[in-house]
């Protein structure tokens, strides 16, 4: 099987890369072993919320030079401020074209409300998530925070208490939905995704409205756990219409409906554009010819190799086995690629629990064009994208999704440019 490009890993980085490649007319296959970080994420996407020294970032694009001073090996520093700005804007457009309704801009962060009712800075949030602009109070009037009886992954009282502390007027209540009784019999099944499968059925809408409406009659706005609208926003919009007041969804404990929907929308866009997704498959070995990759082997395809002119490694970090840690060793398991600075075992972690943990920045080292290296030699046709990269801490710097989107698009653009150059050369030779 031969493609223009093969992407290893179908998380946010791999998918956005595949979307850009197929949008540009290239053939692309994505091999993806399993779930990705989006399934566990808030559904909001961070670009940059803090510098490594803890300085809060309100306007991400204007702080990229300061970031470079403090973190020269951060992927944004390698790519360069101008390119990052261009790619962050391209990410916004590409997500929108995939049908995602997101609010926010790379020019300025906003606050989203977390599942505990706190304010957290971010770049892009689903339209359905409650957000507020920086330095502006949230003006929603009286908020009803509705929990679902038996659903333990969302505690309305905690949210309401925190909103009250911030000076908002919020009241918690629980709705009993008889249609969920069957789920309630088994608490381990009572998760956001399973709840959504019931709430999303059009025939259940009347009962949902009947139970919730009296509870929120005196409220100006309603907050609910993100348990509705798995495949599309339609059921949530319908409920909002029938309640007759703004309805907002708060992310729950994983599995995260908002993250899964984001993943599904991107996957659909990739497939719509002719991309080949190989879900549940895993790249097991990589075949080199000199300093280039010729093909990869996968678990499900046995002896049939996937050949391509370019390859992208987007296998994620420790969370998804894109990196592996043994007691005194960290390595990239597919090709044993060169890693960034690892340092002494004793310095992998910081005793202060909430401080930046050094191991979070471990990952694959690249050249200035995000190409991987082995024994110091650049692999000419291998780009690295997303969480598997070294040099950044997605948690304390609030840049996880941003790095995946920006580097995934960077890799795709480099590949598209290579093809354009090849074509121009062939045209010249033919003349
Ligand atoms: C639990 C969690 C929550 C997060 N929440 C947020 C958030 O709310 N907002 C935010 O901005 N950022 C968040 N992040 C940061 C996150 O890292 C990025 O947002 C981003 O989703 C990472 O995408 P990725 O594609 O680089 O890697 P991943 O999402 O990890 O995807 C890698 C994929 O590669 C596959 N894979 C691995 N090895 C192979 C192989 N050999 N062959 C084929 N496939 C393979 C994996 O199965 C996986 O599907 C979160 C991270 C984690 C871990």
Automatic annotation (TrEMBL):
UniProt catalytic activity: a quinone + sn-glycerol 3-phosphate = dihydroxyacetone phosphate + a quinol
InterPro entries, per the entry: FAD-dep_OxRdtase_2_FAD-bd, FAD/NAD-bd_sf, G3P_DH_GlpB_su
Gene3D superfamilies: FAD/NAD(P)-binding domain
GO MF entries: glycerol-3-phosphate dehydrogenase (quinone) activity
Alphabetized UniProt keyword annotations: Flavoprotein, FMN, Oxidoreductase
Pathway per the UniProt entry: Polyol metabolism; glycerol degradation via glycerol kinase pathway; glycerone phosphate from sn-glycerol 3-phosphate (anaerobic route): step 1/1
Obligatory cofactor(s): FMN
UniProt KW Oxidoreductase keyword: yes
Sequence ranges assigned to domain FAD-dependent oxidoreductase 2 FAD-binding in this UniProt record: 4-403
EC number in record: 1.1.5.3
Oligomeric and partner information: Composed of a catalytic GlpA/B dimer and of membrane bound GlpC.
Function of the protein: Conversion of glycerol 3-phosphate to dihydroxyacetone. Uses fumarate or nitrate as electron acceptor.
Family the entry assigns: Belongs to the anaerobic G-3-P dehydrogenase subunit B family. Belongs to the carotenoid/retinoid oxidoreductase family.
Stated name of the protein: Anaerobic glycerol-3-phosphate dehydrogenase subunit B
Source species of the chain: Providencia zhijiangensis
Lineage of producing organism: Bacteria, Pseudomonadati, Pseudomonadota, Gammaproteobacteria, Enterobacterales
Gene: glpB
